[in-house]
Design a protein that fits this description.
With about 500 residues, the chain is mostly helical. It is built from 12 helices and 5 strands. It is about 65% helix and about 5% strand. The chain is rod-shaped and about 190 Å long.
Amino acid sequence: MDWGSDLWDQHDAIERHTQSGLDLLERYVKFVKERAEIEQNYAKQLRNLTKKYSRRGIKEDQDTKLTNQQAFQDVLNGLNDYAAQREQLSESMTLNICVELNRNLQELRQERKNYLCDVKKAQQNLESSFKLLETSKKRFEKEWKEAEKANQQTEKVQQDVNATKADVEKAKQHAHSRVHLADECRKDYASQLQKYNKEQNNLYYTEIPFVYKKLQKMEERRIRMLADGYVQFSETEKNILPNINKCLDVISSIGRNINEKQDTMALIEQYKSGAAPPADVEFEDYSQVVRVAASDNTAAHLPKVRIKQLFHKKNKLTSSDKNTPSSMEDLSRLPPDQRRRRLQEKIDDIQKELQRETEQSEALMKMKDVYEQNSQLGDPSRLKPQITQTAHNIAKLRGELNKYQVQLTEAGGGTLQHYPASSEYIAVPSESSMSPSDNFYECDFDEDFDVDFPIGQCKALYDFDGSSEGAVSMRVNEQLSLMQEDQGDGWVRVQRANGDEGYVPASYIQII
């Protein structure tokens, strides 16, 4: 069974059916296209979401480096990779399904159009042949009637007694010619009829079945294309699922790798001060005779003011006297442990920057040697400003490095390592080529050795065991020299009578 033999007379049904199939294929292409757009928009929204919640250089996050904070950023990065896979899915659907099926759809439309045109052309040829047949038939009918009339007229003339022999002969000749012409028309009609029947049989038994079979094969191909499109719609996503699962597995592993103990220990490492908790408050028995020294009487009548408030004005007066370079951060207000850690970070950063400047200086000196040996490659004098600037940068960095090393040694965090301001391969400009403001190395380095003077006197209210590095011990009622006020962290720097200097809690002292 096929369309050619069983549906030879259902041209309209075949035409509607094939058109409906092509419309369905077109609808599926549009469906996949919209599905791909959904995936594309979904990926875009995911990327915007990750961008919204990603860290943007938050200093606290960079300093702490807690595993749960870093893990959230890794989760966002994993989600960004997940979005990339959704974009890949959208692109695959568009290229492998929409583009391919749309191309096939256009080919099928043109093929169907050609087949239907062939059928229509064959039907028109048969109609033209039928018109010729009708024309020959009508002519044969007309001529035969005329021949019959001529024969009747001849018989009538023969029976007429008044008719002459010439009239009879003339009537016979006319009847004979009409019969001959009718016979010719009959032959033409028979020929046209034979031709028409042959064309009709060829149309309905050969041409139309042949075209309809091709239309049937075309329809089967269209159905197979659509079926493959259904399968590919699923397979495309299934092929991308392993990569999607990898992204999701990475996010799961990120959560499993979070170390809660490490994060809580990191907070201790960042903020521990190294100071011991305050000692117990001693009982003051006012029922006993209290011997007060003259200096103590004066101190007893002083109002108890927070040390930070007391030195607020003094600090404003003295801050302008000390010319601290803007590039040097004042870390003396930090507790000992935090101060050592920050100093070590500063030293590490400066050493990295110094390494980069040194490598750049070496490259410039090598380039200068090449230019001096072959002047065609370049002018050595053009490198002088860069060499000079690099030398200044190295001198400045080494000066800062020495100062931070000194501070770290004073804080008990290492041994002093002196770095010279220049090396054998660095061309440092002469003093005549440098202005006084350019000689930053000597000025900045000497400032670290300025003598600090006390900014006030204070008395210890409690015993304090300064066993941690950077702290100093004191005993109750001991008089101390105040060297630096509380910077907001609850610690002040003091100096004992024996010259020992260090940090003590601000709540353990009283201003005199």
